[in-house]
Structures are given as C-alpha cells and as structure tokens.
Amino acid sequence: MTLPLPILMLPVATQRYSCHGCGNCCRDFTVQLRDADLAKLRAQGWEERLGMPVTTEFRGTTYLRQREDGACVFLMEDGLCRIHREHGFAEKPVACQLFPFVLVPDDVRTHVGISFACQSVRENKGAELRSHLQEVDRMSRGVPETRVATYSALLSDAMSAKDGELDALRMSLDRMLAREDIVLRDRFDGLAWIAASLGKAKLAEVRANRFGELVAVLAGAVPAELEHIQLAPALPKQLRLLRQAAYARLEDVQVNQAKSRGRWRTVLAQLLASRAFTRGKGRAPSVARGLLDGLDFAAIASVPTLSESPDRDAIDQLLSRYARATLLGNRGWGAGYYGWPAVRGLQALVLNIACTAWLARALAAKRGHAAATIDDVRDALGRIDRHAGRAPWLGSVGERLRLEFFRLDDGLRRITRESI
Ligand code: SF4
User: Fold this and answer.
1) What are phi and psi of 114, to 5 degrees?
2) Which of 25, 78, 89, 114 for mutating ligand 1's site (highest number of atoms within 8 Å of CB)?
3) Helix (H, G, I), strand (E, B) or coil at 332
4) What are the residues whose beta carbons fall under 8 Å from the beta carbon of 31, sequence distance 6 or more?
5) Per-residue pLDDT for 417 more than 70?
6) In the chain, what are the helix, strand and coil shares in percent, each to the nearest 5?
7) CB of 71 closer than 6 A to ligand 1?
8) Tens digit of each residue's pLDDT (9 = 90 or more) over 66-80
9) Ligand 1: distance of its center to the CA of 116 in Å?
10) DSSP per residue over 98-158, as a string?
11) Does residue 389's CB lie within 6 angstroms of at least one atom of ligand 1?
C-alpha cells in the first residue's frame, strides 16, 4: 500500500482563518457531490423528510440542489447548515467541510492552500492556520486523490521542473512580495516583470541551481530595475482584453439557471455579456448576481488606481497576502491551476490580480466611492479567486491565447500599472 503524501499547511504566518458562519459560501457555490456524499445524504433520509430531492444532475454530474436564489437547500435562515446542525460537521459533503482549504498535491507533498472566496480569509480573521492541520488531514481522506503524487510539474511549456526549481521560484517571489519597503504598485509591477522575463528567457540554459540564482536576481532587482524600463500606458486593445478577462472571471452560470434556460440561451447570454465587456461602453450587463448592475463602464475611468486609495496600506496587505498564499499554497500552477507550467501560471496570477484591481475600481464607481476602499477590493478579490483553478474555461486555449497576447508589448505590466 502506498502511503499518502505528507501534508504541508500554507506557510504564510500572517494568514489566519476560522469560519464565522456568514453563510456566503452556501449562498454562492455549486457543490459537486462524490459517491460517499450521496451515500451519507441517503442515510440521513432528507428526501423522505423534506419531501423533495436534495440533489440535482447536470451533464453527468450530481450537485447539491439550490434554491431559486442560488442558495443551498440546506442553508437555514440563521445562516447555518442544516446537515451540520442535525448530524455534525463531519457528515456534510466533503467539499463543504474542506472549504476554504484547497488541497494541491505535487510529486512530493500535498500543499494546503486557501481560497480568498471566503470572507474570513479575506478579512484575516480567526485562528492560526497550523491549528487546522489535523482537521484538514482528516478531511483529506475523503478526497484520496489529493494525497497521491500527481505528475512532475512543468517549468515552462514541455519543460519539466527539476528538483528545487519551483521551490526556489516560490521562495524568491515570496521574499519580494513580503518586502514592505517596496510600494504596492512596484511590487505587483515587479511580479508582472518577472513573469514576463521568465516567459522570454531561454530557460533550457539555466537549470537547477542556476535557475534559482536567476529568479533570486530578478526578484532582488525589483524595484530598481523597473525604473530603467520606459512603459507607455496600456493600449486600447490591452484594456479591452483586460475587461474580457474580468468577464471570464465573473461569469457565473448556476446549475438551476442553466437547466431552466437551456444550453443555447445560456451560451447566447454569455456571448452578449462578453461582447458588452469587450466594448466597455454604456451600462454593464448583469453578471455575478447583479454585482455590477447600474454601472456605466465610463465611470470606472474616474476611479483612481488602488495605489492612490486612502486605504492603500490595507489593500497592499490584502493583495500581498493573497499573492503569497497562492504561490506558497501551490495554487499558482500544476495541479492547483489547470496543470499549467509555472511560468504561464505566474502570468495568470498577475492577470488575476489586475482583474481584481479593475473590478475593485468598477465596484467603487458603482457604489459612488471617490476611490476604491478596502471593502471594494475585498469584494472584488472574493469574486476573482472564487473561480481560480476551478472554472474550466479559465484553463482553456482561449485563456492561454489571451495570456500570449498580454506577453506582447509589456501587456501584463501595462495593465498592472494602469489599475494598481
Ligand atoms: S464564507 Fe468562510 S466564514 Fe463564511 S460560512 Fe463560508 S467558510 Fe465560513
């Protein structure tokens, strides 16, 4: 019998979490069920007691049923879960137990990452993460594939990472992201610059220790090196693509909605909304349960960048914590991000952060704020991270092409500086 991989709790000492029972995840997520979950639900006898099905099938997969408003059928008025109340925490479907933890195996260990879709994670409220290790270890037995070595991660397209290379990348970036002497915009511009530089480098010529030295040199050159590279404002096409990328991260078709609308009407509605975001003129279409309803795209331009916000210190801490947690929790590439190579995953992380900044400014415009507040950024990050590594379309060829386009003309750096 093969032993399960050792488990490594997210090593970001500044991150905390405990569930505060806000119930947001139960109002928001579509929960996919495993055979063991279905057996538990049957044994608990819900269908007989409630007189209605508590699961639903969609395209060959079984999910927890949702109400009309998208909330889980088990969510009670006080925000608590009925299965939890009547049968205990360990009797809930395993996905509900695990959230917001994310288990990501590589070939030597299982990293425990954390999702910023959870309000307590974003607000950094609760216990030290290491206090959850034993419980996460127990829950992980319900998803045994997360404790098995998957595949050796790739460094770049068709180039496997050698021992220590990805750890070296993570550590150098983490050190750079934790530096308080670098201002918010430079820190994320630096991340975009490193992602773009690694995309251009001939990595086959710098392997193992030399790769570690390269990333240490790049990370150590931030912010000084950025001053020497002239950067023009983002091109209109880059801004169009940024809005399109933001839409792809906000798209949120619920199972019950898709079932009642039918496939073609759903696809048509998505196409029209995507085009409206690309155009970026007039009223924003309804997305993510009305998140941007009433917003005129033109109003976003009048909201200053996040670096000019009076809340910039709190925003800085939040976004830095997010980027560090994504990298150290192994959610940036490999099994944590569509099996993507590290260099492309890093570029996607920069794009996710730029989309968060765009959405935060959009929310500020909609809410009549003169600048994005920490709440606008928290709400934006919750929406953007909700899909990261989970939504199949964000791991698609279309998304890869989008990143390829951003690699041209310093696209990632320009959109980062323009919004952060
Ligand atoms: S969003 Fe986070 S804090 Fe709120 S109920 Fe879910 S796990 Fe708990």
Assistant:
1) -145, 140
2) 25
3) coil
4) 63, 64, 72, 93, 95, 96
5) yes
6) 55, 10, 35
7) no
8) 998 889 999 999 889
9) 10
10) HTTEEEEE-SS-EEEEE-TTSHHHHHT-SEEGGGGHHHHHHHHTTSGGGGS---PPEEETT
11) no
Tokens of 187: 């820190």
Would you put residue 229 in left (φ > 0), alpha (ψ -120 to 50) or beta? beta
Residues 192-212 pLDDT 10s: 999 999 999 999 999 999 999
Token pair 């709190």: residue: 314
Judge contact between 357 and 102, C-beta under 8 A: no
Any atom of ligand 1 within 6 Å of the Cβ of 80: no
Ligand 1 mean position, distance from CA 80 (Å)? 10
- Global pTM reads 0.95
Residue matched to tokens 């003129």:
281
Domain residues of the chain, as ranges?
A: 7-147, 152-420
What is the Å distance from ligand 1's center to 20 Cα? 6
The separation between CA 324 and the C-alpha centre of its own chain, rounded to angstroms, equals 12
Question: 379 C-alpha to center of ligand 1: Å?
Answer: 14
CB atoms within 10 A of CB 341: 21
